[in-house]
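Quick note —
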Amino acid sequence: MKQRSAIAFVLVVLLFVTCRKRDAALPDNFVIFESGAQGLSETENSIDVKLKLLRAADSDAAITINLTPEHTTYGAEFTTLPDATSGSLTVAVPAGSSEVSFTVAKTAGVLFDGDEKVIFDIQSAAAPVSIGIGRQFTLSFAEIIANASSATIDGGGPTYPNKVFVDLSANRQTPVVRTGWDLGFYTGNDDYRVILNSSSAMMAKQIDKNDLNQVTAADTVGFSTDVAFSQFAPTTASLVYIDYPNGDLTKTAIAAISATDADNKVYIINRGLGIGTPAPSRGWKKIRIIRSASGGYTLQQADIEATLFSSVDIEKDDAYFFKYIKFENGAVNVEPGKNKWDFAWTYFSNVTNFGSGEVPYLFQDIIVKNRNVEVAKVLMSVKPFEDFNEASLTDVSLMLTWNSSQTAIGSDWRSGGGPGTAPSVRTDRYYVIKDGDNNYYKVRFTALTQNGERGYPVYESVLVKKG
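Predicted structure written out below.
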């Protein structure tokens, strides 16, 4: 009887401890600035400054931020939204949100010398939010070359809703919803190339017709399995319907746009997948692209069964590598200017080889680089990250191999993720990135998740040589 009582007592104690652990309070929810410093270039009129929370706020929380201008005057030369009063402004984080932002704008007509700056400091945060260690942010009214940074990429969570463009020198990231566009039009003077949205599993197949109005559902028989990703039984036959992932513009699903209109055929477009679990289908379109009279592109597009089509012109712009459209909206802003980003994190239409040749394969957590960026991989066993410096760039013993492929980093920074395998960051390597302004950075990835949630990788970058 005593033995039974002892056992019962132990069970009660275990149950109590288990409940206490399960009901234990969550750690403090800290708020920090997304980065420590950014610059507002001469051509930019405003900037959104983001603050991040460790996790979504349990209830509405007010955050007060002090601002200290240097060589500039609030109201006369710059303003904020919301407005600042007596040297501080307040932003409200709504319940359920894990970020909030405010806007800093130049006053129209004011000229800046380049030494103007504003220091923002988180003064207070209402419960249940506390102030984290990244409480200060410096905004310079001039472009900066960041010396070092550690940042969490805002991929948006486990359904990877964002494609995020990262500019190392500006210490800035630009998240865009990855289904926010369909086609990208190359702006190079001597080439007419069109890319698919590789972040939404798009595919394109050419048919032997030139008139969209003559295309019907009969022209698409069998396309639902042929022109579509299959994670269960991918085939090599579908490879030609995606843009090859290395970024080679001679290997796009859509052929070069000819100066001879008759050579430009109709394409059936599978718009791929939306965001969610399960991911919804984005539907189908028929399109035809010709060169416009002004030297750009003209896109004709319609639903498969439509007997009329709409047209939109896309002009070339040397400040960008690509200009983008969404079928429903026409022109949309996607990637930043040529020298305004270095790499992007995204869901991606990749390829893999299961033994019988390359097949299209959807992949999360891909890093793609900009077209004017080069990348070299360095193993920690050859040169530790902390020891790599400017002299290392020309160190013959390192034999740096510069890679111009769009997927020079690709999935190499992480391992695992296959059936029954949890992905993880590879800590035995890092990357040297030469940006479009000839700045050299060493970059390593330090986390794949935030609070155990996918879609928030972390990287660290250090300036090695200024361009």
